[in-house]
Design goal:
Elements: E1 2-6, H1 22-33, E2 39-42, H2 46-49, H3 58-74, E3 77-83, E4 86-87, E5 90-91, H4 109-126, E6 132-138, H5 152-169, H6 182-185, H7 193-196, E7 203-207, H8 213-217, H9 222-225, H10 227-237, E8 246-251, H11 263-274, E9 280-286, H12 316-327, E10 336-340, H13 352-362, E11 367-371
Parallel strand pairs: 1-2, 1-9, 2-3, 3-6, 7-8, 8-9, 10-11
Antiparallel strand pairs: 4-5
Amino acid sequence: MRFGVNYTPSQGWFHHWLDFSLDDVKADFESIKGLGLDHVRVFPLWPVFQPNRSLVRPKAVEQLAQMLDAAHETGLDVQVDVLQGHLSSFDFYPSWVQTWHRRNIFTDPDVISGQRFYVRTLAEALRDKPNFLGFTLGNEVNLLTESNPCAPEQAGEWIDTLLGECDKAAPGLPHVHSEYDAVWYESEHAFLPEHAANKGAMTTVHSWVFNGTAQRYGPMSAESVHHAEYLVELSKAHAKDPERPVWLQEVGAAQPEISAEQAPRFAEQTLANVLTCSNLWGVTWWCSHDVDRALMDFPEREYELGLLTTEREVKPLGEAIARIVREAAYEPVERTPITLHGDRPSWGPGGAFFEEWMGLARDGVRASIELG
């Protein structure tokens, strides 16, 4: 059972790649390790690393390798996202897929060739690092389909192509892909549950209750604190392999839906519930450090998601996570199976099946989900 955190640099957010300071990274990693966590997920910015289709900047790759070495010195393993892609309400594209050069990142053969080159280049630099946990293709890439439309078969082919490149360039590592929860809840969507639950070494789940759950039911409702557990079980229902591992890759306490005062209790209850799920590979909290308020135009909820402040001081939420890591036991439980019904919207907040599963949770019944 792994406990880690998504690494948001304390200085400069992800723009730190433009003014990379290894000393700041080392200090951040020390503050993360002080919470008892064992891994970080890190985010190279695609336009910074690959400003031209045929150029992956050697200096940027060197800095990423230095980041992994610094994490290793601190005792942290590292999982690397590749195509950023979407982060904290901002989308990051290199110029060679935008404006006069606009090309679909999921379907254009030249773009995909460039992405494969990017994966190979990063893999050559990282694959022999003892603390490298593998690649995620990109963060919540299904958020990019509005400007890069594709059919489900094209989305599946894109995933297969790039995961195949990952496996070839850095074999033997658990490479994955990630989507936000529309993959489970929205019916008109190119990225499908069968993609999410069957492609890659693990299924990744991103649980955010500002998707309507906290607003509809309340921040500390059963529906909110069981949401991550529900998504894990929903994802397992779609897996062809009943033993397939699931990684809760993102979960966090976002304001204003969950107040700073409620956040420690929300974390304790959410993780206590999800730790009853079988085949859980690990939990990676979002996120390590707050976003500096000198940086403008973020949604309000993005600024104070961290376990630590920008000065690397531990917040009450960070203290709660550290306590959970020290004391929590991973104890999967026997579950009562129920059959999934309805279309995908019924599986989301307010939907009939969501209500049925949550009703059992409120009654203390741990339910698994089976496809009909």
